Every structure is written in structure tokens, then in C-alpha cells.
Amino acid sequence: MERRKVDILCVQETRWKGSKARSIGAGFKLFYYGVDSKRNGVGVVLKEEFVRNVLEVKRVSDRVMSLMLEIEGVMLNVVSGYAPQVGCELEEKERFWSELDEVMESIPTGERVVIGADFNGHVGEGNTGYEEVMGKFGVKERNLEGQMVVEAWKCLGEAAVEFLASLFNRVLESERMPEEWRRSVLVPIFKNKGDVQSCSNYRGIKLMSHTMKLWERVVEARLRKVVEICEQQYGFMPRKSTTDAIFALRILMEKYRDGQRELHCVFVDLEKEYDRVPREELWYCMRKSGVAEKYVRVVQDMYERSRTVVRCAVGQTEEFNVEVGLHQGSALSPFLFAIVMDQLSEEVRQESPWTMMFADDIVICSESREQVEENLERWRFALERRGMKVTRSKTEYMCVNEREGSGTVRLQGEEVKKVQEFKYLGSTVQSNGECGKEVKKRVQAGWNGWRKVSGVLCDQKISARIKGKVYRTVVRPAMLYGLETVSLRKRQESELEVAELKMLRFSLGVTRLDRIRNEYIRGTAHVGRLGDKVREARLRWFGHVQRRESEYIGRRMLDTELPGRRQRGRPKRRYMDGINEDMKLVGASVEDAEDRDRWREMIRCGNP
């Protein structure tokens, strides 16, 4: 203090028991308070010449104390605080803030206040490169270039709502947004597939102003009220998800397999779909969809004079203008893209399930190869004449129940790659209608998730209960994804459970040589059987389908009956075979699914 010429210093974690004032040498005196010599304790160090100016000392607790001084006729209140750290009880944290509030409220208006406290705020592992912004605005996180302010808006409550409403009204009336919102940072994100050194295997995500994203949400909500998107679009639509599209495609393939009829599917891939959307085409599609001209101009202003920089491991580029495509990372872009796809496909799409779209993921189905080839060419023409481009190398063709000599599909004379399996919306579908490859993919996805958190799961200092919670949160959802749409065989269920038990044994540090039963492993980690969770997810999804309206694609697929006979021999396992077995096991019927609460109670397996 003497070297740095500090006259008043607030200190925390003194760990001195008692409430005294003690001279600490070099002309300084410490006023402190503590109740335990092993933890906490706060104090204020004063230069000796200011000690006689002390009028009052308030020792509230071993975490809060204050001093009142009169210096040259000015009342100065010095508050020292020490907030509870991570791991402390919630009651202790609330008590600290309550005590601090009481001290602050007791200080008369007009008197000066200085707070010196360790608030134990967590802002990241380090501040290298963030010295100018760390700790200024964010809540528990680093405030990257002043953009991470959503948490701050939440903390401000009603005051934030009133301010944002006023700001957004001004933007709407003037049709001009703040210039700072036009700047963004483009960060390349690896797609986790292909060559890591190839730029084509990276997706650019824009880091934009968070307040602008709130404004985009307001605009999106108003656009959704006036724009009606076609039923074939499953991406970013209310009451629709990837599961709807995956389920419809799987049941369609199952029906054609059982009827011994061919089904031809083409999975269309668009090249750089977000980056290729022409701006003029976007304005045209918005107007054609019935968007008011004022909101068209508001969206146009969002894209006017937009500038960005690219940030990568070796540094940052110069700022440049972005004059084509939609903003990656924007809250409004997904719905704008849905509007564009809705208008571009208006003349070529067929009803579901013959045409299904999830944003830019398009699947075209038909009973004949010639028809699906013709439909593919019509789609190509409709998209490419408006600025989009079909990727020939990634567009793939699959035939269900294929007969000899059925041939392949061509696009502008170029043969489309023919496959026996395809990863559609994260779930692998096979031309034979089976799900064996998907089970192996789920096991692989589970191991990938396990490796990401293996530092926690394999740490001997962490309890088995916490490990089980991390496993259920991170690993199990990856293994369960999409399995509610398939009917697993006993062998496939066993394959999933074997993989799960290997992960749990690794996490708990035991092997089969320890001769510990599986039931004990699951009980220690508080993890139930994966087969039970698969059955619960499958029945939950079936109940959801049964409660939907009759026009819903899932209901229509289940109710569809195709002409034809199943092949001789042992019949292939169907989705409803698994559902009937599941319902028999839990004592439920199809009629029970109409009551959601009762259905959930009946199918719940009870395991965590």
C-alpha cells in the first residue's frame, strides 16, 4: 500500500476471528471482522492519518462490513464485501446480497460510497485478448466485444422491456437500424466431416449484436402471422421437427417394402444455400408471400451496408461488405429462407410425403424411376433459374425394394450417385427398410459424446451420481436420437445396452474382471436400462401421433394401406409390431393415447 500510495484498502478472506482494529505497521491500521479463523472474514485498511476521521464502524457479518469517515466535510462510506463462491448454499448467497442491500439502503442520499468487494464473478479461464471487455457487462461470461448483453437485458427486467420497446419502435418508424448492428464477425466452424484442411468443410457463422437478434425475433413473430408456409416444409415451423420428417419417410419405405413395390427417393443437396440466395429474389418472395411493404423495407435495411470480418486461428481480416446471401447466425434468416424455398418450389413440389423439405434438405419420392428423374429435373430448373444451385456430387438416389435392371437416375445427363443407405436429418435410412446401420450410428454417436466429457466421467474425484447425471444429459440423448421412429429387435436393443454399460464401467473405473453385476453399475450411476428408455420414447411419440389431427403426415402414413402382399417366409418387423409389443408390456391400448396425461403415466418407465 505504501509503495502504491494506497490510503484506503478493502480486504477479504482475512480469516481473523473477532471484531477489532489492529495496527499492521508501516502507518496502517486494519478494521476487521470474522467469526471463523479458517474461512471468510472482511476488513478495511486505513492510513493512520485517516483513523481519527472514522465516525462509525458497522460489522454486519464475516462477509459484509462498512466504515463511515468524514474527510474535509464530505461523508465517505467504505463498504467491504466477500460474496459466497461456487459451491456455497443458496441460502448463504441470498443472505450476503440481503446484507449488502441493507448496508447500501442505510446510507443517506448524498453521501459518497465506495465498494471494495470480491463478488466471485466467473468470467472465463483467462482474459488474454479480452482485456478491454472482460467483466464489464456480461453475467458470468466474457462480453465478447460488447455484444453479449442478453443476460444484462434479463437482469434489468421491466426497465429493459420499456427501453427495448421504445428502441424497436423508433427503428420500425424510421426503417433504419443503428449502424453498429451492421457489423459482424464471421467465424468458420468445422462440420466434423471430411478433410479438416479443406475450406469447403467449414460453415461460416456470423457473430452479430444480440440486441439486433431481439429485434429480429420481433420482426419474425410478425412475419409468421401473415406468411403461410407450405405443409411440405418441416424446418423451423411450429409443431414440426426432424422427427416428423424422419418418421414419415421411414413408414413410407416400410409400406412399400411390405407391399413388394418399388419406391424411388432422391435426396437433393443445395450448394451454399444460405450464401447463394440473391437479395432481389428474397424481396420478391417476401412480397409474393403477402409481407407488407414496410416490413420488406425493414428487412432490406438489415442487409444494407452490412459489413463483416473473418476471424480465425491466425488473426482477423480487414472489414469487407457482404452483398449476397442471408446472414448465417441470424435469428430471422431461417424463416426468410423458408419463405424463399416456399416460393421457389411452388410449381414443382408435391404433397407430403412425396416431397418433404427441412430448410434446404429436400427429399423427392415417386413410384417410378422415370417420374422421380423428371421431378428432379423440374426441381433443378426451378431452383437454378432463381439463383440457387443443386450440388451434383452430393445429391443421392435410393431405391426401396429394387428389382433387377431398374437402372439409375440422371440429372442433365450426369448419373446421380446410387446408395443403399443415406443419413437423412441425422438418422440413417436403408434401402431395405431396416435399422441395423442406424443402431450402429447411435452407438458411435454415444461414444463420441462420451469422449467429449470423458474428462468428467473418468475423474475419480467426481461422485458416481454426478457422473450419471452428466451421462444422462450428454451421452444418452445422442444414443436415443431418432429411435422413437423405429422398431428395434432384441439383438439391436442389446447392442445399445452393451455399449452403454461399457461407458458406465469406464466411467466408474471397473471392468468385467471385477465381477460387478450390471444392476449394481446402473444403480451406482442412477442410470436405468436404455431399452426401457427407447420403449418409453417410442410410445411417447406414438401417443403424440395418435393425438394429432387426421391430416397430419404421421397419421396418414400409419393409416395408409398399399395394394400388394408381403413376401413369403418370416415377415419383416414393422413399426406397429414394436408398438403393439410395447403397449402389451405396459398394459395400454391405442384408445388410452387420447388422454395425454394418462398415457404419459402409463408408459413412464420410472428409471432416470
Q: What's the helix and strand layout?
A:
Layout lengths: L7 E5 L5 E8 L2 E7 L7 E6 H4 L2 E6 L4 E8 L2 E9 L7 H17 L5 E7 L31 H7 L1 H17 L8 E8 L11 E6 L2 H17 L15 H17 L4 E6 L4 H4 L2 H10 L4 H11 L3 E6 L2 E2 L3 E2 L11 H12 L10 E4 L2 E6 L2 H16 L11 E5 L9 E2 L2 E2 L1 E2 L2 E4 L2 E4 L5 H17 L1 H4 L6 H17 L9 H19 L9 H8 L4 H18 L5 H7 L15 H12 L9 H8 L5
Helix pairs in contact: 3-4, 6-18, 8-10, 12-14, 12-15, 14-15, 15-16, 17-20
Folded structure, characterized:
Helix 8 (279-288) crosses helix 10 and helix 12 (436-452) packs parallel to helix 15 (490-508). By secondary structure, the chain is of the alpha+beta class. It is globular, with a radius of gyration of 32 Å. It has three domains: 8-118, Endonuclease/exonuclease/phosphatase (Deoxyribonuclease I, Chain A); 231-303 and 330-429, Alpha-Beta Plaits, CATH 3.30.70; 436-563 and 571-603, no CATH class. Strands 9, 10, 12, 13 and 14 form a five-stranded mixed sheet that branches. Strands 15-16-11-17-20 form a five-stranded mixed sheet, with helices on both faces. Strands 1-4-3-2 form a four-stranded antiparallel sheet. The model is unreliable at 123-127 and 130-146 (pLDDT under 50). The two termini are 56 Å apart.
